[in-house]
Amino acid sequence: MPKVTPFLMFNDQLEAAIAFYTNTFPDSEIKNVARTGKDGPITTAEFVIGGQFFMGYNGGPHFKFSEGFSLFIDCKDQEEVDEYWNKLIGAGATPSQCGWITDQFGITWQIVPRRFMELISDRNPKKVEAVMEAMMNMVKLDVAALEKAYDDA
Fold first, then answer.
1. For residue 9, which of 54, 58, 72 has the smallest C-alpha distance?
2. What is the DSSP string of the chain?
3. What would the pLDDT profile of 89-140 be if each residue is shown by its tens digit?
4. What CATH class has 65-153?
5. Residue 2 reports pLDDT greater than 90
6. Domain boundaries, the chain
7. With a threshold of 0.85, does the pTM exceed it?
8. How far apart are CA 81 and CA 109, in angstroms?
């Protein structure tokens, strides 16, 4: 187990959440679960999503997720952005802006193409500003539109 592990407090959807996450992202697995009674609901779990270790707990309605904490998905290209976006939307997620989307469990995800990170790392501040301005007007990030903003700057 890593020294520092994100710990997610769900209301009562931990089992559904880890099933969805481990089926959606490669390099994911459920490591350990504790149940209430032999066949009762999962109360706590250790799991891996996309290679990142997590712990989760069904803590009841006292805790709420917010966009103050989000999970960043590094996507190799537009196809991968579209794949994760569509899987999350298909499961009931709500898009916001700038590549952010909140899933049916309340977790916010940033679905970001690697190309965006490359473009905003440019040494030309005008190009970076143009890419950032384009991104701020998007819901799902669009690599072609980001590159056009970069090229036009």
1. 58
2. --SS--EEEESS-HHHHHHHHHHHSSS-EEEEEEESSSSS-EEEEEEEETTEEEEEEE--TT----TTSEEEEEESSHHHHHHHHHHHHHTT-EE-STTEEE-TTS-EEEEEEHHHHHHTT-S-HHHHHHHHHHHHT-SS--HHHHHHHHHH-
3. 999 999 999 999 999 999 999 999 999 999 999 999 999 999 999 999 999 9
4. alpha beta
5. no
6. 1-58, 65-153
7. yes
8. 12
63/45 Cα distance (integer angstroms)? 17
Q: Which residue has the tokens 């537009």?
A: 78
| Structure-block tokens of residue 131 | 């890419």
Give CA–CA dist 10/28, Å, rounded: 19
CATH level 3 topology of 1-58: 3.30.720
- Residue carrying the six token digits 């950032």: 132
Can you read off the two tokens belonging to residue 120?
Answer: 């905003």
Q: Are strands 100-102 and 94-95 parallel, antiparallel or unpaired?
A: antiparallel
CB atoms near residue 142 (< 10 Å): 19
Kindly report, residue by residue over 11-21, the tens digit of the pLDDT.
Answer: 999 999 999 99
